[in-house]
Write a structure and sequence with these properties.
The complex is a heterodimer of chains A (about 350) and B (about 500). Chain A is mainly alpha-helical. Chain A has a single domain, classed as ABC transporter involved in vitamin B12 uptake, BtuC. Helix content of chain A is about 75%, strand content about 0%. Chain A has 14 helices and two strands, in the order ααααααβαααααβααα. In chain A, helix 3 packs across helix 13. Chain B has 18 helices and 20 strands. Chain B has a six-stranded mixed β-sheet with strand order 6-7-8-3-9-10, with helices on both faces. A six-stranded mixed β-sheet of chain B has the order 16-17-18-13-19-20, with helices on both faces. Chain B has a four-stranded antiparallel β-sheet with strand order 2-1-4-5, covered by helices on one side. In chain B, strand 19 and strand 20 form a beta hairpin. Chain B is globular, with a radius of gyration of 25 Å. The chains are: A mainly alpha (about 350), B alpha/beta (about 500). At the A-B interface, helix 1 and helix 10 of A face helix 10 and helix 11 of B.
Chain lengths: ~350, ~500
């Protein structure tokens, strides 16, 4: 035990652990940890395979992160309120199908179709929020219900068939075209990546700079105290889930554009990847704390891992096992960090 | 019975940024009730947590029955015969009394993994007989009163054959009758030679129960006195090391001003029955009564935290409909709950955010965008005006002391421009020094024209602060007294006036 080496002055002894502990426990430290894990992954895979360290592959990782990253942004808000959203994966599917219905079946202009897709997601989120905050149904149950509802609706509306955007090449350009590539020749980064970063910056600003963000933390920190401060918690909680639905809708539009089709059977299980990204990024499931930057790093850790393992010819089944281990490890490290 | 059971000497303990204990010492004899007092943050709990193996000392010696011991874990403390009853009860409400007592060491049947409920209950009964407790081992803990739950905790602590029983604020949530019951058990234990450490903020009760009292301040040992030779004033001055704001002698004049809030025939089931009262501008209206008399229920109904069935609420003569706390805040009502941590603060957020919590809309620029400069300015103002002791505005409120947390809640309601403030047990769990500051604040607020409802279970506090006193019993207002006519006796008379008595006086 430490106490067996007494020193002359109690004061000097008390200051030493103080600086060490406060540095170790700080938020910067946490972000540094997740970020350095990402760097280590990059270096490790780069050393292991020359195919990993190509520009094309980096772009591939960025692109693979886009959809899950956007989903995880919304989930971050929900988890900070100490809630959960299991429906984002199938809400994504639903939004993709609705976008296709608007653009292909109804022949609406592409921007209107995209807006419709976003609204479809928001509507699902709004219903989640209403059921949770007004009917007082636990988030786990409410969003589990929404998972089935949107999964079923996607199949019903699409009549079980994928809907292709072959007649509207401009729609595919939205995610897969490259504005950056036009500005900087050779730097062909798909728009989907720009959209992810744009959405992340907006989410970060909402979370840290607006009243919605402030109430998101307050709800997760102490919902009853927030209510007793005169805050309309029903409305704000609904707003948080609606925002999460909006991001899921954005994910749906992105994936439809990327695949050039709305696949009614796709999307199940995406919610787990999103939750994993949020948790790896250091957001606490018990609510009250979390960052967008952490979530984005978490999403990149997952896609980098998947990408790297695939290049090293690790079978896909094993990639999934390893992702599971990483989730547990990340949360364990977080718990170690918090421990006094 | 003067043999020393336990000696702690030269104890040092530091936490990041704080020297919690320096050269602290404590001595406990067999069959002694030893009170440990000091302001919040004086180090009482830290010292006892070191004894209980929850914290590890940096330096110092613990000598138990003549042998130096190194207590490294709660399990080891238990093994050595040291049991602690914490301020927060650690019981599982869905389990029975007996299941709670023997949790983790349940008697088993011969079949592996099967617990023997019968044996568990019998063991518990044996324990209760030993302690002269009237408890049914088969009751669910959730169905017991707080006092009985406390008894369960004590029984559990003693079931480890404890030689030392530490009780951290055991009476904080108890009524007078329940405290008497607790004290009689403590006296029995003393007879049996158990050494009892009693931590409490209620100094009057220490006089009743303790043999000696040790005072701590700022993590240091100050003095140990024979309780019967130490006047309370002396203990207080040792605790705070400075003079205390005194408002007791002169009562502020009764203001004859406009009625700000009027409550008419408020009803809800059994908890609120025809509640009528009015609150004047600049007045402190005390709400007295026993626990469960319905005072908090009145406050929560007015504030819109709970609904009421029938009745009218008038603010400045106009009838208002308050359906949610949001409505109440709009009408200028603020509520400071008795349980700050659960209902008053978002503990994980910082001082300035908590101050802004009830009036976020004031701190917006456009489109929900927060104006940080404004929250910082407002936070600074409040820290200065209310003398909140915090290292910075960015300090999370969970790290502040009880008194300073209470001030943050007050700051929140002042920021929301509320004119009617409902304080529910404003000084619960707050040390003497901070208490007097809160009293001064309440008086200042009343002088500034705020109207205050103060619910309190401490009669001296009610008498010292109130212009008028509303007394409740079983959901009814049984009496409204002016400051002049209110005494402990008159208040208690109304507080125990049950239905039959009310009907009788009416006839």
């Amino acid at each position: 035990m430490k106490s067996e080496t007494p020193t002359a002055k109690p004061i000097s002894r008390s200051e030493e652990p103080k600086t060490r502990k406060s540095l170790f426990r700080s938020d910067t430290m946490q972000r540094l940890m997740a970020f350095s894990a990402l760097i280590v992954l990059f270096i490790g895979f780069s050393l292991a395979s020359p195919f990993f360290r190509t520009f094309e592959n980096f772009v591939g990782i960025l692109l693979a992160t886009a959809v899950n990253g956007v989903l995880a942004l919304g989930v971050t808000f929900v988890i900070i309120t100490a809630g959960i959203d299991l429906s984002v994966g199938t809400v994504l599917t639903f939004s993709a199908v609705m976008t296709a219905v608007f653009i292909i079946n109804w022949h609406l202009p592409i921007p209107i179709g995209i807006l419709g897709g976003l609204l479809s997601g928001s509507l699902a989120g709004f219903i989640n929020g209403t059921v949770i905050s007004r009917m007082k149904i636990p988030p786990f149950i409410a969003t589990l219900g929404m998972l089935y509802i949107t999964k079923g609706l996607s199949l019903v509306i699409s009549e079980l068939h994928p809907i292709y955007f072959n007649d509207t090449p401009a729609f595919r350009e939205m995610a897969m075209g490259s504005i950056l590539g036009q500005i900087i020749p050779g730097f062909v980064v798909p728009n989907a990546v720009l959209i992810l970063f744009g959405a992340a910056i907006i989410a970060h600003l909402i979370l840290t700079r607006t009243i919605l963000g402030r109430y998101t933390f307050a709800l997760g920190s102490n919902e009853e105290a927030t209510r007793l401060s005169g805050v309309n918690v029903v409305a704000w909680k609904t707003a948080v889930y609606t925002l999460c639905g909006l991001f899921a809708g954005m994910g749906g539009v992105l994936i439809a554009s990327r695949l050039n089709s709305a696949q009614p059977a796709l999307g199940a299980g995406y919610e787990l990847d999103a939750i994993a990204a949020v948790v790896i990024g250091g957001t606490s499931l018990s609510g009250g704390e979390g960052t967008i930057l952490g979530t984005i790093i978490g999403a990149f850790i997952i896609s980098t891992l998947t990408n790297g393992l695939r290049i090293l010819s690790v079978p896909q089944e094993w990639q999934i096992v390893i992702t599971g281990c990483i989730v547990i490890l990340a949360v364990f490290l977080d718990i170690l960090r918090r421990r006094r | 019975m003067t043999d020393v059971l336990l000696r702690m000497e030269g104890i040092y303990k530091s936490f990041p940024g704080v020297q919690a204990l320096s050269d602290a010492k404590f001595e406990l004899r067999y069959g002694e009730v030893h009170a440990l007092v000091g302001e919040n943050g004086a180090g009482k709990s830290t010292l006892m947590k070191i004894l209980g193996g929850i914290y590890h000392k940096d330096e110092g010696h613990i000598i138990l029955e003549g042998h130096e011991v190194e207590i490294t874990s709660p399990a080891m403390a238990q093994h050595l015969g040291i049991s602690i009853v914490h301020q927060e009860l650690n019981l599982m409400p869905h389990l029975t009394v007996a299941q709670n007592i023997f949790i983790g060491r349940e008697p088993r049947t011969k079949v592996p993994f099967v617990v023997d409920d019968k044996a568990t209950n019998e063991e518990a009964m044996r324990l209760f007989e030993l302690l002269n407790l009237r408890l049914d081992p088969n009751t669910k803990v959730a169905d017991l009163t707080v006092a009985k739950q406390q008894m369960v905790e004590i029984a559990k602590a003693l079931s480890f054959n404890a030689k030392i029983l530490v009780m951290d604020e055991p009476t904080a949530a108890l009524t007078d009758a329940e405290i008497d019951e607790l004290f009689s058990i403590i006296r029995q234990l003393r007879e049996k030679g158990v050494g009892i450490v009693h931590i409490s903020h209620r100094l009057e009760e220490l006089k009743q129960i303790s043999d000696r009292v040790t005072v701590m301040r700022d993590g240091k040992y100050i003095d140990t006195l024979q309780t019967n030779e130490a006047p309370i004033d002396k203990i207080i001055s040792l605790m705070v090391g400075r003079t205390i704001y005194e408002s007791a002698p002169e009562l502020p004049e009764t203001p004859n001003q406009d009625v700000v809030l009027e409550v008419r025939n408020l009803n809800r089931g059994r908890s609120l029955r025809n509640v009528n009262f009015s609150l004047k501008k600049g007045e402190i209206l005390g709400f007295a009564g026993l626990i469960g008399a319905g005072r908090t229920e009145v406050a929560r109904a007015i504030f819109g935290a709970d609904t009421y069935e029938t009745g009218e609420i008038l603010i400045k003569g106009k009838q208002v409909y308050i359906k949610s706390p949001g409505d109440a805040v709009m009408h200028g009502i603020g509520y400071l709950s008795e349980d700050r941590k659960r209902y008053g603060l978002t503990l994980g957020m910082d001082v300035k955010e908590n101050v802004a919590m009830a009036s976020m809309k004031k701190f917006l620029k456009w489109f929900g965008w927060m104006d940080f400069k404004k929250t910082v300015e407002r936070g600074k103002e409040m820290v200065k005006a209310l003398n909140i002791k915090t290292p910075s505005l960015e300090q999370k409120v969970k790290f502040l002391s009880g008194g300073n947390q209470q001030k943050v809640v007050i700051g929140k309601w002042l920021t929301a421009d509320t004119d009617i403030l409902i304080f529910d047990e404003p000084t619960r769990g707050i040390d003497v020094g901070a208490k007097s500051e809160i009293y001064k604040l309440l008086n200042d607020l009343a002088h500034q024209g705020k109207s205050i409802i103060m619910i309190s279970s401490e009669l001296p506090e009610i008498l010292r602060m109130s212009h008028r006193v509303v007394v409740m019993c079983e959901g009814r207002v049984t009496g409204i007294l002016n400051a002049g006519e209110a005494t402990q006796e008159s208040i208690m008379k109304y507080a125990t006036m049950r239905r039959e008595a009310v009907l009788a006086t009416a006839q």
